[in-house]
Amino acid sequence: MELSNNIKKRIQILPDAVKRKIAAGEVIDGPYSVVKELVENAIDALATDIEIEIEDSGLKRIVVKDNGIGIYRDDLPLAVEEHATSKIKSIDDIFSIVTMGFRGEALSSIAEVSRCTILSRTADEDIGGKLVVSDGTKEIFDWAGPNGTTVVVENLFFNTPARKKFIKGLKAELNRIKDVLFAIAVAHPHIQFKLKIDNKIAFAFEPAETVQRIAQIFGNEVADNLLYGSLTDLQCTIEGYCSKPTYYRSNRSMQFLFVNQRPVQFPYFSFIVQQVYQTLLQKGQYPAAFIFCTIKPELIDVNVHPAKKEIRFFDSNYIHTMIYNFAHKVISGTIHAFPIKNNEAQLQDKSIKTPSHPENLYDNDVAPHLVYTQPTVNQNALIHEMQHFYTQLHNKDYTVVGTVFGTYVLIEKDQNLYVIDFHAAHEKKLFDYLMKVDSILGLQQLLMPVVMELSPDLLLQMHTYRDILTNYGIIIDQFDEHSIVVNAIPDFCDTNDIEGLIKDIVDSLHESKNSLHDIKIKIIEKIACHSAKRAHDMLTHDDMIAIADYVFSTDDYRCPHGRPFVYLLSKTELERFFRRS
Questions:
Q1: In whole angstroms, what is the distance from residue 505 CA to residue 525 CA?
Q2: 187-194 CB contacts, 8 Å cutoff, 24+ apart
Q3: What element of type H or E holds 449?
Q4: Closest-CA residue to 472 (of 447, 509, 436)
Q5: What is the tens place of the pLDDT at every residue in 47-100?
Q6: Distance CA 523, CA 542 (A)
Q7: CB 162 within 8 A of CB 113
Q8: Torsion of CA 304, 307, 310, 311, to 10 degrees
Q9: Distance in angstroms (rounded) separating the CA atoms of residues 25 and 28
């Protein structure tokens, strides 16, 4: 039997250039990786002010500038060599890491897959250095700039074009950059951060306390609904914030774990937090959590992932228990916990007035008088005749009985009674329509455009998916650096809660790993939900006819959220219940 050609090939040592690019690919898998590594280096350099510039989602240009201690001019050529670092000296140092970076791989990996320029000067140098690295060549020049370091990365992956194929898209990559920066900014609230995207300021965070930094990024609503606590044991201290039991998000995007000021991914972290809230929140509702763990460096291993995303603890079960107990005690109030209030004066001005007699919700002069009179036999017959006539007028094979509890439409057809949740059915009808069209032509221009101040987190979401929103009838523009203005919405959309619609949309888009198709579905879901008629809305007979027509034209009786909207009760079941069969 002849061996395949692949097996026959002889083993050989890879060229150094190939080995370096393979190693670089383990550390740098996209523009967000470059931003993460460079910002971490700036933090290790004791910077208190970090500026980031992004062009073309980082593929064209990334600039990270800091006011840290800088790199000596003579050390600049070494900075881009493999495993060149000032942060560890021996193998023992690996097991007591106190810096963000330590392996000396970041700059060398970045320089391997881009055109890289490093400008730096230390406080005790009159003239710093400018290092230009391109295609393996290095040139160094004098530089008389300010103390600190600026790294300019251009044409990322120009020499490894296959790597670009694995980037999900420019918008998705921009979201990954944003997520990385937000997590780091929460972990280091004393540092000033500024981000410019395509020459426009995306955000600027002044130094602040931790909860104020959370408010800067995610808005006052999140910060106002957090409870603070701390828990100390022999091996570690945990402190931070968990959301009030009444507050939740639609995804896990507001759950962060930091270990020694490093944002990390820890298996089951979200599961542990969710377990604490399992009796308080429903399926699809997720608490917010910003949990900071301080532990001796020798009790953790941060060297288990090339990009330092994951971490290994000396005892995972111990950490599981600590996180669970911390979150449980915060929301139960058994440790120091207090709600964070950023607008104390404003809250004090608000008062809730409760009527002394709850039944007297209307003034006697204007109270509606609702009188119910039981129909006579003749009246019942007349009502049935009118319904039958109206149904015949529409050429329908069913009878609209009416509504009950302001929520359900009753339809009689083929010896069956259909109980329809009108809101859920209408939502699904709109969802199906929007899924069939590429864009919406019918718009309602707002006579009073709605200006919304959004946190930087949400502003970036709107910037990223603005084109898709426009296709589906939501027309927005930048109002100022902190706000957007909503100029138009779909013509069938309710104008009473435009802010709620926009916030629901951007909140659902927070998970950047979704494809554009998934993003489109999320936007459509929110538009359909906010546009559908709700419980106790006024329904005309034509409304009920329209929804019945839809119900009898589809075999999918679940809304986009998975909730059923039709309950079928047969005449046989009724007769069996009343023992008439």
A1: 9
A2: 187/258, 187/261, 187/262, 187/263, 187/292, 188/43, 188/261, 189/213, 190/48, 191/43, 191/47, 191/48, 191/49, 191/50, 192/48, 192/49, 192/50, 193/50, 193/51, 193/52, 194/49, 194/50, 194/51, 194/52
A3: strand 443-453
A4: 436
A5: 999 999 999 999 999 999 999 999 999 999 888 886 545 544 444 544 444 455
A6: 28
A7: no
A8: 50
A9: 5
Q: Give a three-class secondary structure readout of 299-333.
A: HEECCCCCCCCECEECCHHHHHHHHHHHHHHHHHC
Q: Which amino acid is at 138?
A: K
Phi-psi region of 513 (alpha: psi -120 to 50; beta: other; left: phi over 0): alpha
Cα–Cα distance, 322 to 274 (Å, whole number): 14
Q: How far apart are alpha carbons 539 and 411 in whole angstroms?
A: 14
Q: Using an 8 Å Cβ cutoff, are 163 and 31 in contact?
A: no
Residue 554 tokens read as 């589809």
Q: How far apart are CA 568 and CA 418, in angstroms?
A: 5
Q: Is 500 helix (H, G, I), strand (E, B) or coil?
A: helix
According to the per-residue pLDDT averaged within each range, which of 392-396, 442-446, 556-560 is highest?
556-560
Q: Residue 288 and residue 305: Cα distance in Å, rounded?
A: 26
Instruction: Give me the phi and psi of 129, to 5 degrees please.
Output: -130, 155
Return the CA Rg of the chain. Answer: 31
Q: Name the residue among 62, 61, 69 with its Cα closest to residue 42.
A: 69
286 CB-side CA count, 13 A:
17
pTM of the model: 0.64
The answer to whether the beta carbons of residues 59 and 31 sit under 8 Å apart is: yes
In contact, 86 and 8? CB cutoff 8 Å: no
Q: Which carries the bigger pLDDT value, residue 338 or residue 314?
A: 314
Nearest to 437 by CA among 523, 374, 501: 523
Instruction: Give the single-character DSSP code of 60.
Output: S
Query: What's the rounded Cα separation, in Å, for the pair 114 and 430?
Result: 47
Q: 85: which 2 tokens?
A: 């670092």
Which of 97, 102, 99 has the alpha carbon at shortest distance from 296?
97
